[in-house]
Amino acid sequence: MLPLVDHHCHGVLRSDPDDAAFEAFLTESDAPAAPGTSFFDTQLGFAVRRWCPPLLGLEPHCPPDRYLARRRDLGAEETNRLLLGSTGIGSYLVDTGLPGDLTGPAELARLAGAQAREIVRLEHLAERTAVGVRDPDKFLTLLGNAIGAAAGSAAGFKSVVGYRHGLDFDPAPPEEARLRAAVADWLEAGAGRITDPVLLRHLLWSAAYTGLPLQIHTGFGDPDLRLHRCDPLLLTDFIRAVRPTGCRLILLHGYPYHRAAGYLAHVYPHVYADVGLSLGHTGARATAVLAEFLELAPFGKLLFSTDAYGLAELYVVGARLYQEALDQLLNGWTGSGAWSAADADRVAALVSAGNAERVYGIRG
Asked: Can you name the residues that pair with 251 across neighbouring β-strands?
């Protein structure tokens, strides 16, 4: 099994979810499953039943109720330890911007017997910084200090501008007068969830100027986004504009625009593509999706991740589906003579860990 660096993930639940809460993590929908079915009736749900039961002492594909009962018998901590310890992931880069009783980087690393660092979500950082602040100039100063402090310890930053506005934003840094006016309006309204594109652009550029890697959500997600506005091709002008800062942009997920993400990684030296989320949700079709990522993306520009959130099962599935898909592709290409075995081994090591180690400065 190749060593893995999961460059984009989230914490797992510290307590046992009930059945409905567990199923909610198997979908991006905010609605119930179709009548007479459950969210186990998805590619992701089938993958969980294929790969996770044996790790808890059950047969593959066992019924969901039996699996969930076994999970409860073991308890959350033991389940998390067993599942996380099986993945082969040696380093986790953890986005800490999601709500819930989730493990932080250090706790996740302890459970998995691995190492972990933080990825700072920009919108969450800004919203925390605004608590109790009403003066725009004070907020901008505090925000600048907070981003600078985060840059001193974090592995990188992340933005969910695709959720909050869409990727079709003005690519230039906002003018100072417009920024101050937008901040004043936001603070006056109670400084809640940031959706103003001027503020979102300021966060992106502030992160870019630190020189750390910047992850940007692209492609599918929950109904809070509008998928047609999350095509990574909409970032083209921003990608061009930000290049002189030296910031490396990592386009997360991408699906169904993953080929576009691969193209952008192909033509722009500071752009990278991520396979996370796409492979877990496509399940038995993950090999085809990974092959499409590998069509144009240079092999030194593609990064493995799971985007696991809440359930340790999602780490298992993300890792296993990736490894199975990669093995099938490379065995086919070497078997046909299209690739040499040595080249296949080198590419596998790059995508699995080497690229992330280089981009984020991770040391084993």
From this structure: 216, 273
Over residues 281-324, the pLDDT tens digits come to 999 999 999 999 999 999 999 999 999 999 999 999 999 999 99
> Could you give the 3-state DSSP secondary structure of residue 223?
coil
Q: Per the structure block, which two tokens stand in for 95?
A: 């986005």
Write out the H or E segment, with its range, that includes residue 109. Answer: helix 105-112
| pLDDT (average), residues 13-26 | 97
Q: What tokens appear for 7 in the block?
A: 């460059």
* C-alpha to C-alpha distance for 99 and 95, rounded to whole angstroms: 11
Q: For residues 87 and 112, is the Cβ–Cβ distance under 8 A?
A: yes
Q: Tens digit of pLDDT for each residue in 85-142?
A: 999 999 999 999 999 999 999 999 999 999 999 999 999 999 999 999 999 999 999 9
**Can you read off the two tokens belonging to residue 258?**
């993953």
Distance CA 194, CA 133 (A): 15
Q: Write down the residue that tokens 């359930």 correspond to.
A: 311
Under DSSP, the state recorded for 350 is: I
DSSP-assigned beta bridge partners for residue 310: 12
Residue 288 CB neighbours (<10 A) = 12
Residue 298, number of CB atoms within 10 A of its CB: 16
User: Taking all residues of the chain, what is their mean pLDDT, rounded to a whole number?
Assistant: 97
3-class SS at 241? helix
Question: Which residues make beta-bridge pairs with 92?
Answer: 6, 116
Range of the domain at 307: 4-360
Q: How many CB atoms lie within 10 A of CB 337?
A: 7
Sheet with 156-159: strands ordered across: 4-9, 89-95, 115-121, 156-159, 214-218, 249-253, 271-274, 302-303
Q: What is the CATH number of the domain that holds 344?
A: 3.20.20.140
User: How many domains are there within the chain?
Assistant: 1
Q: Give just the sign of the alpha carbon dihedral 226, 314, 358, 275.
A: negative
Cα distances (Å, whole numbers) of residue 69 to 39, 313, 338: 17, 15, 47
Backbone phi and psi for residue 66, each to the nearest 5 degrees, phi listed first: -70, -40
